[in-house]
Amino acid sequence: MRLIAIAVYCVLLVLSFASCEEKRRDTELLKYVAYSNRDSAQLELDLFESRFHGKLRFYRPGGEIDSGEVRGNIKNDTLSGDYYYTPFGWGQKKRRPFILLKKGSQYILGTGTEQEYMGIPHYIPSTINFQETKFIFRKVAR
Predict the structure, then answer these.
(1) Backbone phi, then psi, for 2, in 5-degree steps?
(2) In the chain, what are the domain boundaries?
(3) Residue 105 burial (CB < 10 Å; 0-12/13-18/19+)?
(4) Whole-prediction pTM value?
(5) 134 near 35, Cβ under 8 Å?
(6) PROSITE patterns annotated for this entry (predicted)?
(7) Interval 88-124: pLDDT, tens
C-alpha cells in the first residue's frame, strides 16, 4: 500500500513540473525598437507573471554596438532589473541597472542615479526619471 502511495506521489510531482514547463514554452517573445537621433536600440522581451528576461542592443554611429541581456522583476507597469552587457571595444562585461515603464503598447527606458549594493546595481528610487528619456520602445510589427 505504501509503495502505491509513493508511486502516485511521484507521478503527480512529475506532472506538476511538466505543466509549469508548458506555461513557460507558451510565452511569446516580444520585439521592440527605439530611435534617438542617430542612435537606435532593439529589445527582445520574454515576460512571465512576475519576472522578465531578454536581449538588448544599442547601436551607435560608426558600427558601435553594446549588446547584452536584461532580466528582473515585473511590478505593476514597471520592469526593473539589470543589463549585463559587453560595451563596444571592451573585453569584459559590465552590469548596470535597467528600468522600463509600460505606457500602452510602448516601453519607456528610465534613468536615474546608479548605486550598487552587495554587488547588485540599481537606481536610487527617488531619482528614477521617465520624463527625460532617450529611448521609447515601440513594438515591431511581424
Answers:
(1) -65, -35
(2) 28-139
(3) exposed
(4) 0.75
(5) no
(6) PROKAR_LIPOPROTEIN
(7) 877 788 999 999 999 999 999 999 999 988 888 989 9
